[in-house]
Amino acid sequence: MTASSLAAPASRPPLGWLPAPLRAAVATVLLLLNTLWWCALLFALAIVRLLLPWTAVRRVLDPWLNRVATAWIAGNSGWMRLTQRTAWDVQGIDGLAYRGWYLVVANHQSWVDIFVLQHLLNRRIPMLKFFLKQQLIWVPVMGLAWWALDFPFMRRHSESELLKHPEKRLEDVEATRRACAKFALVPTSVMNFVEGTRFTPAKHAAQHSRYRHLLKPKAGGLAMAMNALGERFDALLDVTIVYPDGAPTFGQFLRGDVRRIVVRAQRLPIPHELAHGDYVADSRYRKKVQRWLLELWHRKDAQIGELLAAAGVVSAGAAALLAVDDSGEAESAGDT
Questions:
Q1: CA nearest to 216, candidates 88, 321, 142
Q2: Which of 10, 139, 222, 233 has the most neighbouring CB atoms within 10 Å?
Q3: Running DSSP on this structure, what letter comes out for residue 134?
Q4: What pairs with residue 235 in β-bridges?
């Protein structure tokens, strides 16, 4: 099965005969070995870049750092093919440009989403650079790898904290601008899970989300990336991920228990008027970005419903939301 296959049926992988616990053990060992091998080279290059902090050096080393990370992703795809019995239904990833800049958004349900995106988009577009929570820098090995690859770390202050200390709102703005200034040097795909967290029925209910299958989107990170890179972005790549049998845990993924994954991607233009603006200070610009994202999110919610209906299932969010709220109350995308 290739990444561009449409409705590729599940085939028995070479290690599919192993019991699920053994498949998980093999997948875990291969993931660890692959990670340690490539991270050793990644850290060596990152140390050289740290000791020689000049733009000319960065222009030379950053593509090599990205090549190392791309090789790590390819290694992960290798052990996935050895152990996974997944039927992939993928559309919209052909014809993308590897030498370009993309702003990528996707719905978020599981840690597996990251492996899905990397597996399908590796070497089709430049390497994905994710917006990460600040706490993830402490993840052993991978935290340093993300730092070496210039992933933006966001503090994500609570609304109550921002009310007490409004100046902290600028911390993420500055972190995004620093990261995007580096991204401007080499082709990059800036990835943002705009919901800000993984979808769960409990989070969906707590938000009183008007969407059936999604949490409310947050426009801040998206807008700051557009502000920093402006018209450098060639397009927005909107990716929708659906697990017809339910969002898997990472353990289920390693066991090879994910039966079906449906992915739809579409390349969309970024409106010219959104490529420049001050999301923090300009309320009119902020509302334009939020309105654009809300329209995108409504279409994505409908698309997920159609894909689930075609698979004969409904999401937990749709089951909880028995009727759409017709109160006419205004909806707003969040800031961060």
A1: 321
A2: 222
A3: G
A4: 102
Nearest to 57 by CA among 65, 66, 44, 48: 48
Residues facing 237 on adjacent strands: 104, 267
Q: Checking phi first, is residue 87 left (phi over 0); if not, alpha (psi -120 to 50) or beta? A: beta
Question: What confidence tens digit (pLDDT) does each residue in 302-316 have?
Answer: 999 999 999 887 655
| Sheet strands (E) in the chain | 87-91, 102-106, 128-130, 132-133, 153-154, 189-192, 235-242, 260-268
User: DSSP H helical segments within 16-110, as ranges?
Assistant: 20-51, 55-83
Classify residue 92 as left (phi > 0), alpha (psi -120 to 50) or beta.
left
Phi, psi of 262 (to 5 degrees): -115, 130
Q: How far apart are CA 113 and CA 108, in angstroms?
A: 7
Beta-sheet pairing, 260-268 with 235-242: antiparallel
Which residue has tokens 């919610």?
301
pLDDT tens track for 48-96: 999 999 999 999 999 999 999 999 999 999 999 999 989 999 999 999 9
Rounded CA-CA distance 185/205 in Å is 42
Beta bridge partners of 47: none
Phi, psi (rounded to 5 degrees) for 267:
-90, 120
pTM over 0.85: yes
Measure the N-to-C terminal CA separation of the chain; round to a whole number of Å.
38
Closest CA to 179 of 148, 219, 156: 148
CB 134 within 8 A of CB 153: yes
